[in-house]
Amino acid sequence: MPELPEVETTVNGINQYVKGLTIIDAWTDYNSSFHKKADNIKNPAYFVHFKKDIKGTTIVNASRRGKNILIHLSSKHTLLIHMKMTGHVMYGPYKKLSKKDSQGESWRPATDDMFLADPFNRFIHFVLTLSDGKQLVLSDMRKFAKVTLIKKGELKHSPHLSTHGPEPLDPAFTKTDLRTAVFKKPNGSIKIVLMNHEIISGIGNIYSDEILWRVGIHPLEKVKNIPDIKWLQIFKTIQETLLNGIDFGGDSMSDYRNIKGERGKFQDKHNAYRKTGLNCSKPKCLGVIIRLKTGGRSAHFCDTHQKLYT
Fold it and tell me: Does 175-302 match 4-154 at the fold level?
């Protein structure tokens, strides 16, 4: 799942390429009986009103809350996109295919650009046609993504956003805020607590592994057992690791791509995530990266410098 750095990278791309453009039309082939009464575009009845509300509006700018993309429109609405497991947002020239030519696809890049033609970019299920003749599209292989509209005055209290914890890159976020947040789950394992969006927004499987590798804490360590002296280091490492992810354009170990359909490079900087069986890259450490399951997720860590305190 795209995490904070991937979402931030996408938001930066939206602000660079589509800010100021007007939405001419909207299309989707999402249609799920499970979402029959839901307030998202997988409900066909909802999409009818959604399309009416966004046509003719201008994209003012974009921001991020947790793992959610927020596209602020010139109307009273903000467009929310949560990319979920396999989604990513792209911008470029696309063409709608006839049933005869589609071969299971509905839209395809209108050019032969090597990035737009990446096979991970072909699962187009949501399209906004813009005033420059190009499209903002959502590729979503497993069709888990969420797209909805929220009235601007209701953003903070929307059920889509109201449960989110503090933003770890917020300039006002402090070490004290971090401790206050994670100690809501004192008996929880630190990896699972860091990944809980109600505790801290935006950290997932990849970045939690990398953060804990850097600070030398075992992913199963209980929050309450971590020494007081470690929290400043944890705080700084969270911010440094997330900013590294943004600097490298996100992580494309799986299928994330940026707004131009290109791969990020943070996967080339992994020290723990999916490094099972390899020697630990920490200087002078003789450990090996191992993998275990916790809370239904995989944790990757060094068996030597990431020890349990108890």
Answer: no
